[in-house]
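pasting for ref. prot 1 ->
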Amino acid sequence: KWINCQTGNEKQKEIASKVKYIFIVGDLVDGVGIYPGQDSELLIKDIYQQYNECAKLLKQIPSHIKLIICPGNHDAMRIAEPQPELYKDFAAAIWELPNVIMISNPAMINIGFTKDFPGFDVLFYHGFSFDYFIANVESIRNQGGYDRPDLMMKFLLQRRHLAPTHKSTLYIPDVKRDPLVISSVPDFFLTGHIHKSSVSNYRNVTMICGSCWQSKTAFQEKVGHHPEPCRVPIINLQTREVKILKFGE
């Protein structure tokens, strides 16, 4: 309702009226068989129906807003990175939406380019390698682990690679180029995966970790996740100021 200016105060409605892009950094659906005991927590246990339900929600977003979507490890596709665009045979209903732009994971895109302005380079990475580094890098683990996605993102930027250790993620080797190398410095670095909302800056790169729309599951509690659901970062592209809107407690 907020994105259609149907709820919120006047300032919040004004922000909604100015939205040009919505970035979805993976895991459009919860998937099926992703972790032990997941079936008992699912309301929709058919992957096709999950994507159809997601499409119904995305369809309510005004068509002038571009939806830029990359996949994640819960989506119905290979886990090995780079992940291609969402498979059409599973997510056909989402592909049919006129304002959807599908991209790979990871991906670097440019928004706002004009003849007088170079635009903003936005790096998308769902964040599957985070689990490995949170478990194995002492400086990240001791300073908060899953509660500090900013440390994780800074760690990857410093190494100019999204999975700089062998075994940190499943990947498909390419003899010509490494698709996980951060070959150019982005303006924005967007991730997700750990369901923790975070905004920070490292050497003029705005780092944003997205939230989620799911409360804590038994599996997340077991592995030490502390999700912050229903929080949406809003970027002012004129000032690069980021605010977080909370849609739930």
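and prot 2 ->
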Amino acid sequence: SPWVDLTVSTPSILDDECADYIPNVTRGTAAFYAESQASKEFKKKDAAFAAKIKNQNIGPKIWHDSFDRPEGRLQLYVNNKGLAIPYVSPMLAESLGNLPPLLLVAGNEERLRDETIYLAHRSAEPAKYKGPSYNAGKFEKSPFQTPTNTTFEIYEEMPHDFQFVDYACTKMSYERMSEFVNRVTNILNEPLPPSSYNYINIKGELSPLKERHKKVLNWENIGIVPSSAA
């Protein structure tokens, strides 16, 4: 599954009962690295870039007050003011419509589960799931409002990137990936099925998503850095 929300705002990121091998990242990746002379010099340029983002006046802003962290940078990948840039956090883009067909796969026990669930719904139903509250109004101005054909699959008991390990579901996942590619490239000469959200148990049986998976769809803090991030 992709990492599509560097604001670490979804519930599964915060869940200490999650059995994934990915650590609780609410502290951010930058917190684990010591300050260096190179990083100090970089901060000068970084501050100018951050100010440019914060002061942009081209419509709804792409940052939130929660990005201001007195302890410093949350992620090494980008400064805090850039966390909601769509190229950084695709889940927070103005729209995920008009994309090529997507296959999104997640493990039920991984920390990135909920952001993948939300991304899948934002692409398949862009008019319904419009992203963070501080971006209100951007979707209506976007030319990309056509739903994206999206297949989402979540595998029972699986961690992040479970396909690299010989789990019971690994072979099935690869087979379904291959089938998806064949359909998209029209090798099977069959139309793509409509968008779907599937829960796949350890026996390989498909069913709709469980109610617990839908919690993120009503999450009010999408794109907002949690207060526990330090």
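The chain has five helices and four strands.
The CA atoms of residues 163 and 170 lie 5 Å apart.
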